[in-house]
Amino acid sequence: MTRPTHLRIHQFAGLQPGPRLLVTSAVHGNEVHGTKAMAEIARQLDAGQLTLRRGTLTFVPIVNPLAHQLDRREGDRNLNRNLRPPVIAQDFEDRIARVLCPLIAQHDGILDLHSFQSAGQAFAMIGPRNNTGELEPFAQEATESALAGRLGVSRIVEGWLSTYALGLQRRQQRQSDGSRRAQLISDPHYGVGTTEYMRSTGGWAITLECGQHLDPNGPEVARLAILRTLVFLGMLDDAAVEPHRPAQPPEVLQLYDVIDREDMGDSFEHAWASFDAIKRGQQIGTRASGEAVLAPSEGRIVFPNVKSQPGTEWFYLARPSDRVLG
Fold first, then answer.
1. Whole-model pTM?
2. Where is the Succinylglutamate desuccinylase/Aspartoacylase catalytic domain (predicted)?
């Protein structure tokens, strides 16, 4: 197998100045709803069926070509957890970061398109409230909130990086075997991916989880989200896509904890789907030791992953948020 040696980037430069939007997909190689959607929108732009009014639209349909070639989530490692320009490249994902990080910094915002393993409906993930703290200082809350409410999903999730920080504290207390993998998952930078890196440059960012990996509706969810983002930014005419008018406001949830798998013998109580309701004290799973894993409070389970490796995220916990969308 020959390893990929380049990233394929498509750019449409409007003849009038305007926003600079970056759209990415296959950051995890087997998540390709956005890849298919970008191909269709590029075709429509080339055919004159869509007209870019202003600004710059950049597509990176396959961000991790090695993982995509292997038809799996990662190449050498998870690109979307330790994203930063490397001093010395140690793996394939470091080499991607050398190109991807400067590209992100050249744009005003990013729409990052993903999918997930378990069953469930599409949802969006947004950044923190405006703040000047050390973890993730931010001043684009209004833009992210307003855009997320227009993408066509009924559920929006916040609290990603702060939840990771909590999980990282626990992970650093465990004994490390000194491997590259152990160093990465206990790195204080762990949890920073495409959207977090964009926010660190002053931009806004939305992650759209377009559904389960094989959901046949996923590419259309991604396509409509791209078009609605372009309309929201004034880069396409309003007539380019039917606007999203939800019957009721999207549900907003706050991630508050992440639970790692400790052993391959750890097992779920049953086949959970993202956003299944859980009650306080309900058994979620069982450790290899026989210890029951219980829900600490009422809420939802998010991203339950039967394929997670020991020392990495097994599932997340979420509860209702008081955030008001624009």
1. 0.91
2. 17-116
